[in-house]
Structure formats: structure tokens, C-alpha cells
Specification:
Layout: H1 2-16, E1 25-26, H2 41-54, H3 58-67, H4 74-85, E2 89-90
Antiparallel strand pairs: 1-2
Helix pairs in contact: 2-4
Length: about 90
Amino acid sequence: MKKTIMLIIPIVLLLQGCSTYSPVVDTGGRSKFEKSNASQISDDLLHCKDLAKSNSTMMQNFTFWLVSPKAETKFKYIYRTCMLGRNHQVLD
């Protein structure tokens, strides 16, 4: 029982951070895009965050984190990919 609790506590602490992830987006740069998408950033952040939350669970985040070469959770991966797909430059 103690071993199970000692295993669960670090896992929960590691996965707790996925809900607070917020990508760092360069709103002034236009280096690889024709026009700036800074005017849509608030809507895109909210939509991508909701999309990532609805498509990832705690267990999926942990499993994805174990096999990910960048050691990122599924939540962070979906969030970041969504922002990149909407033509925002994500720095983090």
C-alpha cells in the first residue's frame, strides 16, 4: 500500500503541471507567415486549450510523456500543435 501511494504522488505532481501550460507565442513576428495573426490570439488560445483538455486524460498524458522524445504531455503536444496549425509562432 505504501509503495502504491509513493508511486502515485510523484505521478500526480508531474501531471499537475499540464493544466497550467500556456504557450509562449511571438505576436509581433511575421518571419514565416504572410500576415500577423495577433488579433486572433485570444480566441485561438481558448479554443486550443479546450481542444487539448477534451482530447487528453491523465493516463494518456502520463503514457505520452513516457514515450515522447521531448518528454511532453499529450495536453501540451495537442495545445502546441493546434497553435502552430493556426499560424502562430510558438516559442515554448
